[in-house]
Give the backbone structure.
Amino acid sequence: MASVGEFELIERYFTRPVKRAWLGVGDDCAFINPTPGMSTVVSTDMLLEGRHFLPDISAERLGHKALAVNLSDLAACGAKPVAFTLALALPEADPEWLAGFSKGLFAIADRFDCELIGGDTTRGPRAICITVLGEQAPGQALLRSGAHAGDDIFVSGVLGDARLALEAIRGHASLDAATLSKVRKTMEVPTPRIALGIALRGLATSAIDLSDGLSGDLGHVLDRSGVSALVSLDAMPRSATLAAQPPEVQRRCLVSGGDDYELLFTAPPELRAFIADASTQAGVTVTRIGRIEAGKGLRFLDRAGEPLNFDEPSFDHFRD
Ligand code: ADP
Ligand code: MG
């Protein structure tokens, strides 16, 4: 199929009527009317081919993932999605690819009621940068900095399947074709935990979304909150697929695997019943994996409560 020009591309694949914004794609800026009394919450995430997604990911899944990882940051703050902008670099304007990408993108945008209001389009190595806008009542923000000694530590969903997919693709774990395709879908089609973030307003003392691996991401909470943590490795929720892997693969995927996009949060033990209600309301499981203590550092415990000694660094773009 013939490729399309820049403005035809924007018009055909990325322009839709807007509801919440009073001006969307097509002018020099977009205009939004914020809800009076609410804070506007902003977050940006960039996805580069080879770094954040495999070159053979389907266009539709990439459209989904690009927005999902941004929405996940809103979820971590307990914010409600409003709108987003899309900066897109593509080596060529392939209509088939663009149709798939915009289909995946708008499907998740509609599901979370988040409108595309503008962006930028350029030729170059495939990269996607989304800035998402959300709303949150100023007093209800979930932050990394609020964890207290004595708080429980919870995570949503199950952890480690996305990393297991990567391990299998790299030949470091063996999975049959059907299982690989299942965990690969987990890696490429994550669900942002928006409903859970909103349900945790007024309950969680701190929260973060797990994008780079639990050890590093929980580490950010500990640093910002000035506390330490004990985490039970056995308590960490995992799929039957991951549970069937050798212990060291499980540990690597659970502790340092990235791309989970689940929420990690803390709350005082007297709120356990409310946390269970929030989980039911949001339709996602929540598992207690440890507790916050005074001091510094993150320690993992075995089934008997004995400290485990291992070094599982989290993902860092400028290390390795
Ligand atoms: P300018 O040159 O003034 O920055 P552009 O010509 O780049 O504007 O973009 C024209 C319009 O199309 C703008 O409203 C911009 O927000 C929108 N736009 C450009 N690329 C995208 C995209 N990938 N998705 C959504 N809107 C886009
Ligand atoms: Mg421009």
Observations:
- The longest strand covers residues 80-90.
- The first helix runs from residue 6 to 14.
- The pocket of adenosine-5'-diphosphate (ligand 1) is lined by residues 10, 14, 25-28, 86, 88, 116, 118-121 (CB under 6 Å).
- The chain has a mean pLDDT of 94.
